[in-house]
Design a protein that fits this description.
The protein is an alpha+beta fold and 253 residues long. The protein contains 5 helices and 15 strands.
C-alpha cells in the first residue's frame, strides 16, 4: 500500500521524471557494487597447487628407478609420508593455513604428491612452514578415518601411533634378504617423539615446489650395518633427524 501511494505521488509530481531517473541510477549503482564485490570474492581466491617432488642426483625420482651412489646401487619401491600444520608466512607472521591439518603423500600415486590450497591472491608470503608426521595429540586420540585411516598402512597401534615417514627399497650393500631395506619412522612418546618442523623459503606456488632430496637422506645410512627400522626407537630418531634438511625449494620448469 505504501509502495502504491509513493508511486502515485511520483506520477502526480512535476519532478516524477527526475525522481525515477535518480531511483534507477541508484539501483544501477547498487547492482554494480554487488557485481564488483562478487567479482573480488571470485578472483581473489584461487586454487594453487603445493607439490612435493622427490629428487635423486638433481633429477625427479620415480619408483623402482635404479640409481648409483658411491659404491651402492639403490632402488626405492615405496615412499609415503605425512605432512601436517602447513602455514604460509610473511617473515615470521602467519598469513595463511588450510583447513585440513594432515596430508598423506604417496609416490606410488603421482596425483597424491600435490595438494590444493585456496590462497587469497592478495596475500604476500616468503616462507612455508610444515611438520613431518602426526602430532602427539592426534596420536593420543587413536586411529581416525580419512587420511588417518589405518587402511592407508601408516598406523602401528595405539601405543606406537602413526608412521610419519615410510621408505622401502633395495640396496646392493644391504645384508637383508634380496638386499631389501625398510625404514618406518614414527613415534610420539618421549623419548621417541619424531614430529619434526620444516621452514623453507618460498614465495610463488605456481613456479616452485618442495623438493625431497632422497640422495641426501640415503647417503647418510650405512646399509651394511642397518637395513630395517620398524618401530619407535633410538635408531628411528637418528634417521628422523636426517629428514628436515632434505626438504627445500625447487624451481619448476
Amino acid at each position: 500500500m505504501v509502495y502504491n501511494l509513493a508511486l502515485q505521488y511520483i506520477q502526480n509530481s512535476e519532478d516524477a521524471e527526475e525522481i525515477m531517473s535518480n531511483f534507477l541510477h541508484q539501483q544501477q549503482k547498487n547492482w554494480s557494487l554487488l557485481v564488483l564485490f562478487l567479482g573480488l570474492i571470485i578472483t581473489n581466491y584461487a586454487q594453487q597447487q603445493l607439490k612435493f617432488i622427490p629428487t635423486f642426483n638433481g633429477s625427479r625420482y620415480a619408483l623402482t628407478n635404479k640409481v648409483a651412489i658411491n659404491k651402492d646401487t639403490l632402488t626405492i619401491d615405496l615412499l609415503k609420508f605425512y605432512i601436517s600444520d602447513i602455514k604460509l608466512l610473511e617473515d615470521s607472521i602467519e598469513v595463511y593455513s588450510p583447513k585440513e591439518k594432515h596430508y598423506l603423500f604417496n609416490l606410488e600415486n603421482p596425483s597424491a604428491m600435490s595438494i590444493s590450497l585456496n590462497v587469497d591472491s592478495n596475500i604476500n608470503f616468503n616462507k612455508i612452514k610444515f611438520c613431518i608426521g602426526i602430532d602427539s595429540i592426534t596420536n593420543v586420540a587413536g586411529a581416525i578415518g580419512g587420511t588417518l585411516d589405518p587402511i592407508n598402512g601408516m598406523y602401528w597401534a595405539w601405543n606406537s601411533g602413526y608412521v610419519n615417514f615410510k621408505i622401502e627399497g633395495t640396496s646392493t650393500l644391504s645384508n637383508a634378504r634380496k638386499n631389501a631395506f625398510k625404514f618406518h619412522l614414527g613415534g610420539y612418546q618421549h623419548p621417541y617423539n619424531s614430529y619434526r618442523a620444516v621452514l623453507i623459503k618460498i614465495d610463488d606456488l605456481s613456479k616452485t615446489a618442495i623438493s625431497i632430496n632422497l640422495e641426501q637422506f640415503l647417503t647418510k645410512i650405512e646399509f651394511s650395518q642397518i637395513n630395517s627400522v620398524m618401530s619407535p626407537n633410538t635408531k628411528s630418531i637418528e634417521l628422523t633427524n636426517l629428514l628436515p634438511p632434505i626438504f627445500s625449494t625447487l624451481k619448476l620448469d
